[in-house]
Amino acid sequence: MSAAGHALALQGLSKRYGSFTAVDDVSLRIERGQFLTLLGPSGSGKTTILMCIAGFVAPTAGAVLLDNRDITALPPEKRDFGMVFQGYALFPHMSVAENVAFPLRVRRMGAAEREAKVRAALDLVQLERFADRRPSQLSGGQQQRVALARALVFDPALLLLDEPLSALDKKLRAELQDELKALHRRVGRTFVNVTHDQEEALSLSDRVAILNHGKLVQEGAPAALYEAPRTRFVADFLGKSNFLHGTVREAHPGAFAIAAGGTRLVQAVDRDAPRPALSMPVLLSLRPEKIALLAEEDTADNTVEGRIVTWSYLGAGFAISVATEDLGLLRVTLPSWGAPIAPAEGMPVRLGWSAAASVPVAEDAD
Amino acid sequence: MEGAHRPGATAKGLAWLVAIYLVLPIGIILPVSLTDQRFLSLPHESLSLRHYATVLTSPEWLGSIAQSFWIAVASTILAVVAGTLCSIGCWRISRRATDLARAMMLLPIIIPSIVYAVGLYRYFARLGLLDSVLGVVLAHGVTGIPYVIITVSTALAAFDPRLEQAARGMGASLGQTLRWVILPRIAPGIASGAIFAFIHSWDELVIVLFIASRDVFTLPRRIWDGINENLDPAMAAVAVLLILFTLLLLLLDMALRRRRDAA
Amino acid sequence: MAAAAQRQTGWWLLILPAFLLMTAFYVAPILQVLTISFTEPQPGLQNYERLFTSESVQRVIWTTLRICTITTALALLLGYALAYRIALAEDRVRRWWILAVLVPLWISVLVRAFAWVTLLRRQGLVNQTLMETGIIAEPLQLVWNEFGIVVGMVHYMVPYAVLPMLASMREIDPRLLAAARGLGASRFTVFSRIFLPLSAPGLIAAGVLVFIFSLGFYITPAILGGGKTLMVAEWISLQILDLIRWGLGTMMATVLVVAILTTLAIFSRVVDLRRVFGSGA
Q: Domains in chain A, ordered, with CATH?
């Protein structure tokens, strides 16, 4: 298959149903060959955006551009996009091979060429042996691969995936995530994926766009989003986070300090970042895995004392809730191997983290 | 289901009585049709097939049977094509307007055929369609549409709309989507609708009484005259043949439904 | 948006043939009936005045309503007993019971009316049997009167009563009934306190359906009434075909349609025609 991916752009895309706004002025660029994931809770508008890209939903305002060509008015069958539907939408009355051949059949491709392409596509997803089976005779993972083969067989300009892994159990999902990633690398096409599963989004994508209430909240590489969420929603939705409220007491180049109750917390920032105004309220997001349990002699930029309220053993680690006087309940995760303590309810602990571990985030507008 | 709630003896007995009331009068025609007498009665001495012979050698009865059959075939085709396309369109668009359209298509079941027949009598007189096969086919076809709409809509309700989206998304035109994806999936529903539309036309009398007189003389019309003029055992023979034919169609429908449920 | 509208045009075209056929060959003739009732013999409402002035018109309406009410009540009672039995039957048995409902439903009305004539007339099988066994000396008048009409109509309507009731009964969770028995309720209590209230929507739907089907029923009353007891449909046919009184006939037809559509509109939320014709064995 040719490695020519295409670039896609959304410009001010909006979709309203009566007074309900499903998608609110979303602009986004997806570069050639990129794997982009639209991530958001249910009702965030991510599926509506995908349906606008596919052409099944006509946007109320805005445009969809493929390589700078406006395709907003093009009906779905003229767009040449491959799509993997939620639940796969395999034709139950056709065999696997007939399903995969369908896009070629509608393009009136000759039988010989069609057969070769179908074989190549099934080969790509390692399903050659199942060509004559009905979809109902396949496992969930196999069905998913048929859907992929069917979506890729006609060299589509773009591959759209609507919650492609949501119907599978956890273990299979992890396996197919790796496969999907490898497939993306092999075919070199532009993929647009929709999911509500943040782990899936982080592990699969080159870039992630996070949506909430129809708005694009933040987009970027997975690590950038995880390490530097801009809003409380992003920090909370992508992984887990503790939120620390306080007011600014001191501001220096490269750091500022806040007071949270009687506790002083230091926050590192970029040297050239604008300094926050004194006594301004701020919100810090602090990932549970970035908090350490300190032994008596240990020091850290920020420390706080508290008492373990609950704890649970998760195999690879412990999840511990610590009640503190000034910061409320803090969630802490520790690797179980070589943990400094054996947690117990009521146990007094001292927690510490570096000034660069937390990140200031904005409260969400709504 | 072990230990499930079952009806008591009273309820069971009553149900049996009702079932007998429903089936027995129909069943009693069979022995009557086999009577050896010249008048309507149970067989006295022996069973006889002479009344079947009377019917099957009578050019009038055979002519009416043939005419009814071809009218039913033609009006079924009309009803199935129009009804199926309409159901698919309404299902896909699914708006207030299509709900109204679908409700309108059900009118022939709701409005008594006597009202329609009276209206058609005048209407066809102006169009010159009285006493013509075309007129009867049109009338039966239009009134057969609701049966098709109901069965096809039921089949479509079980059809995953994403299959249609998937087909369009992969580049299939409307025609290709219909032919390769939608129609094969709802074929059993269409067949059911066709069977009911056929039975509807095959049995229809009221409209025919008004819009046909001499040239078009369908089987129900001949039976009607028979009941009103000369009640003889040949009528019973015709009735039995009709019952067998309907049973056959119903069994066909059941087989189709079972196949659909199995798929 | 223009693109969206264009995308749907194809689908609208699918509706078009049925819509045109229906408009040209169904709705138009019916509208004509309504029009004639106001225009013949002279324009005006004089046909409708007869509703209040003519005794024969009132008698026909009264007879029709009486027979329809009796028919509906009986069909519901018998149909309920049958539906109850079917709903609680095991799957294997249920198929046969449903067949006992579907076969009469689809067998020609004419054939069924003929069967009743065979059974009920003076020299019919019922009278013969009763006389041979010495229960009666003189044949009973079982047909060509209101009794005959009701017997035949109930026979026709019971399947229409069973199907909606059955659909609603089968939505009742059987575990509820078993649970009630387990809590100490008698069979009758389970029926009257749990099953009956839960199946009420189906009962109402069946009642509406049977009643409106009965109102305009032609063939069975015409054959089993023997021309002596006139119901609305036969009366209309008489006005048009024999007396050539189009104004009166179409007036009654209009009244019939309005009565049926009004009843249906009132109960539109409980009546689903699909439940009758969509449900199979």
A: 8-228 (3.40.50.300), 240-360 (2.40.50.140)
